[in-house]
Amino acid sequence: MGKELSVLAVVMFLALAGCTTAKGSFCAISSPARLSTSAVDALSDAEVRAMLAHNRKGQALCGWAP
Fold it and tell me: Which residues, if any, are the signal sequence (predicted)?
């Protein structure tokens, strides 16, 4: 019974180890999105909104300059 419990514990720890995420804050792992004018012209409205949201979050949390 003790060996089966040890094997079960190892399997559970291995399963949990696969659930980790990247370490670090948003500011440590992100950077501002800066595109050329022609690249911005090629974006859809939804992509522009997502990029603006990302950059505004960086301004608020990390002090990124516009």
Answer: 1-22
